[in-house]
Amino acid sequence: MARSRNTEALSPLDGRYADKLQGLSRLCGEGALARYRAQVECRYLAKLCATPGVKARRLSAAEKKALEKLPLLSDADVLHVIEIEERGHGTVPATRHDVKAVEYFLKERLRRTSLRDLTELVHFALTSEDVNNISYALMLRDCLRSELLPALEEILAALDALAQKHAAAPLLARTHGQPAVPTTFGKEFRVFHARLARQVRQLKALKICAKLNGASGNYNAHTAAYPKVDWQKFSKEFVEGFGGLEFNPVTTQIEPHDTYAELFDNLRRANTILLAFCQDMWRYISAGLVKQRAVAGEVGSSTMPQKVNPIHFENAEGNLGLANAQLGFFSAKLPVSRLQRDLSDSTVERNFGAAFGHALAAYKSVMAGLGRCAPDEAAAAAELAAHPEVLAEGIQTILRRDGEHGPYELLSKFTRGRSVTAGEMKEFIYGLPLKPAVKAELHDLTPLNYTGLAAKIAKRR
Known about the structure:
Layout: H1 22-28, H2 30-49, H3 61-69, H4 75-86, H5 98-110, H6 128-165, E1 170-175, E2 178-184, H7 185-205, E3 208-210, H8 220-225, H9 231-240, E4 245-247, H10 258-286, E5 290-292, H11 311-333, H12 344-349, H13 352-371, E6 373-375, H14 377-385, H15 392-401, H16 407-415, H17 422-430, H18 436-444, H19 454-459
Parallel strand pairs: 3-4
Antiparallel strand pairs: 1-2, 5-6
Helix pairs in contact: 1-2, 1-6, 1-13, 2-4, 2-5, 2-6, 4-5, 6-7, 6-13, 7-10, 10-11, 11-13, 15-16
């Protein structure tokens, strides 16, 4: 029976790829944003009640627990918030403002509890951007920690295993697409592992900045109501109390999103590395150096029955490109806001999930591709054996070491632009006026053992 799929989804993220992205959807969707906003509002109310100098009674242990649970909005609660925004509810008119709708929803719920006397402290002295910027910072933090980083670390683990397993397996390297001195499969996997690991370390260390300072960043309303409260200290404690966030003390109404751009650029670099990896794997598969396992019940081509296409690496390449296009736009757009602020960032922020969705779909495709293919060491060895001319570098370098005159030019004349057989290479070596020991040294050099420190490099973590 066919799985359930939204056949009218505008984006494949909510249709074709939806089953791969359920965890991400729970962190980026409309419901998630409402829950993050409610969490910020409720924690703000709790901190106000715990702050000396603010006219608010202290909360009991039971009330604190109830306030902690309140932001765990059900799907029905989220729909109710949307109803308040679009049509109003009861005595509350339509807000046409999503943050205000959350405020009214929370006040409505608090009136049913012992906290009813504190309803006017909900959203006290705040501008909507105070709530929004912290909510989006939490969203970015959680998407990174819960979905993107685990997927990237899974790829890292797979690359590390491949590097270890095939550390010493010789492979014909190609520079400018032409046969070059040998490397190993493991070394090539290690290169991508090392590059990606660097970006993952930076992503783990990155903190998202957030602010809580009012309509123009000056605590105007806060200090007008309670001039003796240290609002800068209050805000720093509040923002950094969430964990993984960094307080930005100097802003306009809008937190400038510079750390958002740092995150998006970091992800773009990771994605670009994976895109390059997918293209290299595609080429190895095309050359028969990496074999794919056929999957029962899967069709490779609508007309050519024999085909096993590298579809997962191709899918990943496309999704990585889509993700990077959006991430690049986010980085360019979000740090720019006219004067104190404009609202052009709002619809852009709502699309974070789309960029992350394409990235996560790509990461899962990379893993699927790696799970069905393996280096063909025999094919790689055969290809190397067919290109003994790649030893020209080693031969001329050894001759340089021994003081021979013009060895580069000599080898260039013999090998450049032509295929050389193993027999011809032996005849060439024995025809050189060299000491027997040097001739023996050159004779022992083969395309399969001329791999330098590749195996050692491949094994390093």
